[in-house]
Write a structure and sequence with these properties.
The complex is a heterodimer of chains A (404) and B (293). Chain A contains 14 helices and 13 strands. Chain A is α/β, with parallel strands linked by helices and 404 residues long. In chain A, strands 8-7-9-10-11-12-13 form a 7-stranded mixed sheet, sandwiched between helices. In chain A, strands 2-3-1-4-5-6 form a 6-stranded mixed sheet, sandwiched between helices. In chain A, helix 8 links the parallel strand 7 and strand 8. Chain B has 11 helices and 2 strands, in the order H-H-H-H-E-E-H-H-H-H-H-H-H. In chain B, a hairpin with a 2-residue loop joins strand 1 and strand 2. Classes of the chains: A alpha/beta (404), B mainly alpha (293). Chain B: Belongs to the binding-protein-dependent transport system permease family. LivHM subfamily.
Chain lengths: 404, 293
């Protein structure tokens, strides 16, 4: 009998010890991240956990968040989607059903996010994604209370805004470097859902700026040898070749374009000047770059330098599009502020708070969501002169989409 | 730029594409066609070759020495993997195929773990660009084409004219009889696997001389390598070269003049067509070695 009692006491002690961490975790709020930490979209994907992780650390170091009079620390739970939609869906299901996160950030791959929203929204999980493709589903009907995307938020501007500000910035910065007003543009675009979506807007934006755009040349997403595509572009004698949208592919294509002398100038979407400098890239013609949304390495935004110092100090790799992290970092702080304002983690109250707050972030001093859960802010465009000097400027988005 | 210049430029582009694909295809055709090992991780061998080159050049070594290191390192890796893994799957090629799929993930993640997932590149080993008429010819591409021609010629001679090549072909025809005649079949299999791996190492070194690579570069390249090997005929080096040329030119012209986004589709459609019309490839090949019973 004594033995049985001893065993019972030991078991109870063990259970007590095991139960202790669970008790401690009562004050932890879990935030999920689904991102491509491997696979073809890794250059943008790895910035998500890095940006969210930095924000989580900053919030926790400052004492956490106070919600309903109780203090909470945040914990990031990340999953690699391996640039594979099935993996992204499985990871989202796990984070929602098993890990029980309060919010999800990602994925950066546009069509993946649409699939993930089918899981997060019925489960009433606050979901942020820096994908302009979300405009397809974020409508007044879908985001209203009870609507199927009520808890979904787009943390990058609408595509007509981003494309509009980017096109204007590229043409404005390249004109003085070329010494004349560029008239003819050719676009070279990765042929996937994101590339097709983005290029359709950018094409209209270039046309709205008076550009003649005789061809959009699509390439298979895993292309490494761009010479046939570039030769085709060269045959059209363009003033500017615009590379969209995967930074890794763009940096693969550019040296080949320079060797072929394919155009008089180039635009690289989603390439930070920081990587341009770090890789000691150079060109004998002007090269414009755009960041998503504020540049690492050379920015006209005064907060950007401090942000990227902290970002890399936290261990983030120096990637082609490190600036993408800002489509997520600011919104962790924004969400934390919303929870504090709502005084609750209730998703409906959180949405209400998110829609009324004006958040001061790195990207903008006044980040707000419009009634269809989308933000509006400027995009930064830079240009490297043949001599190597880089100049940047923030480009405000157009008020409305081009007519045609 | 004149239409004729564009046309010539596209032919040169096609030759350049063909040379890298051919190097991979020769490795695939030797390993798959002569040993029966279906190594889908061959693309990752190529990627490792590129990473070794990148590490060597980053450490201050010259490009030629880096190429040699890449060949040796991937050849050694091939030896270890053949002895440690694939030799246990020779009787069941499907098992070898599954093992190779697992290897893809393992090798990619080992590289990501130690050297992060970002693009790696080296300075162009040759930077001169010749301009002939309106056609631009990059010296680094000429270098890759020249090395490929040399490697193809050596491999072809080794397989067709040397004593080892004859013994190897005999063991492909009938392993049991070849073994009875005193040919060390298993050792030959190891030798072919190491040779194919070393060629992948060379391919990786040449690839990073042309383009940046990532830990995930191997996937697309190996698919094209298998397509070329099958179109040309398994085990047929001449076939691999011819098929590589055909594929390179088809890719170059489809991107230049056709629906550019279908570039890869043309290659694989061609492979499917050839496999239906000529199951042993355009130039004839083995059906893979007959398995020892």
């Amino acid at each position: 009998m004594k033995t049985v009692l001893k065993m019972g006491a030991s078991a109870a002690l063990c259970l007590g010890v095991l139960a202790h961490p669970a008790f401690a975790e009562d004050n932890i709020v879990k935030i999920g991240v689904v991102a491509a930490e491997s696979g073809s979209f890794v250059s943008a994907g790895h910035t998500l956990p890095a940006g969210v992780g930095l924000a989580v650390k900053q919030i926790n170091d400052a004492g956490g968040i106070n919600v309903g009079g109780k203090n909470y620390k945040l914990e990031m739970v990340k999953r690699d989607d391996r640039t594979d939609i099935a993996t992204a869906i499985a990871a989202t299901q796990e984070l929602v059903r098993d890990v029980k996160v309060q919010a999800i950030f990602g994925s950066e791959t546009h069509d993946f996010t649409l699939a993930m929203a089918k899981i997060t929204q019925p489960a009433k999980i606050i979901h942020f994604a820096g994908n302009s493709t979300l405009a397809k589903i974020l409508t007044p009907d879908s985001v209203k209370p009870g609507g199927e995307d009520h808890y979904l938020f787009q943390s990058e501007p609408q595509e007509f805004q981003r494309s509009g500000s980017t096109a204007r910035g590229v043409l404005t910065l390249l004109e003085p470097l070329l010494g004349y007003k560029p008239k003819k543009s050719v676009m070279i675009v990765g042929n996937d859902a994101t590339g097709q979506f983005l290029s359709s807007y950018y094409f209209k934006a270039l046309k709205a700026e008076g550009q003649d755009v005789p061809d959009i040349i699509f390439y298979p997403p895993d292309t490494t040898d761009f010479s046939p595509f570039l030769t085709r572009a060269k045959s059209l004698n363009p003033d500017i070749i615009h590379f969209w949208y995967n930074g890794d592919s763009t940096l693969t294509a550019l040296p080949q374009a320079l060797e072929l002398g394919a155009a008089k100038s180039y635009f690289l979407f989603g390439v930070d000047p920081g990587i341009w400098k770090e890789k000691q890239l150079s060109a004998d013609v002007p090269v414009a770059m755009s960041c998503v949304p504020v540049c690492w390495g050379e920015s006209s935004n005064p907060k950007a330098r401090a942000y990227f110092d902290a970002y890399f100090a936290a261990g983030a790799p120096h990637g082609v599009t490190s600036s993408v992290s800002l489509l997520y970092h600011d919104y962790v702080h924004f969400l934390a502020e919303a929870w504090e304002k709502a005084g609750s983690f209730d998703p409906d109250k959180t949405v209400e708070a998110l829609l009324t707050l004006h958040h001061q972030g790195v990207v903008s001093d006044d980040l707000t969501f419009n009634p269809t859960h989308q933000v509006t802010h400027a995009t930064e465009v830079c240009a490297a002169a043949p001599g190597g000097a880089i100049s940047c400027s923030m480009q405000q988005p157009p008020a409305e989409a081009p007519k045609s | 730029m004149r239409a004729v210049d564009i046309f010539i430029q596209q032919i040169l582009n096609g030759l350049s594409i063909a040379s890298v694909i051919t190097l991979i295809a020769i490795g695939v055709t030797l390993i798959f066609g002569l040993t029966g090992i279906i190594n889908f991780a061959h693309g990752e061998f190529l990627m490792i070759g590129g990473i070794v080159t990148w590490l060597a050049v980053s450490a201050g070594l010259g490009f030629p020495l880096a190429v040699v290191l890449a060949i040796l390192a991937v050849g050694l890796m091939g030896y270890i993997l053949e002895r440690g893994l694939f030799r246990f799957t020779l009787e069941r090629p499907t098992n070898g195929f599954i093992v190779s799929l697992g290897l893809i993930v393992v090798l990619q993640h080992v590289v990501v773990l130690f050297w992060n997932p970002n693009q790696k590149s080296i300075p162009r080993p040759l930077t001169t660009v010749w301009e002939v008429g309106g056609v631009r010819i990059a010296s680094v591409r000429v270098m890759v084409i020249a090395i490929t021609i040399a490697v193809v010629a050596l491999s072809f001679r080794m397989i067709t004219a040397s004593r080892y090549g004859r013994a190897l072909r005999a063991s492909v025809e009938d392993r049991d009889t070849a073994a009875l005649m005193g040919i060390p079949v298993r050792r030959y299999i190891t030798g072919v696997f190491v040779l194919g791996s070393a060629l992948a190492g060379l391919g990786g070194a040449l690839l990073i001389a042309l383009f940046p690579i990532t830990p995930f570069t191997g996937g697309t390249m190996v698919m094209k390598g298998f397509a070329v090997a099958l179109i040309g005929g398994l085990g047929n080096i001449y076939g691999a070269v011819a098929a590589g040329l055909i594929l390179g030119i088809v890719e170059g012209f489809s991107a230049g003049y056709g629906f550019s986004q279908w570039t890869d589709a043309y290659s694989f459609a061609l492979m499917i067509l050839v496999l239906i019309v000529r199951p042993h490839g355009l130039f004839g090949g083995t059906s893979g070695p007959r398995m020892a019973s």
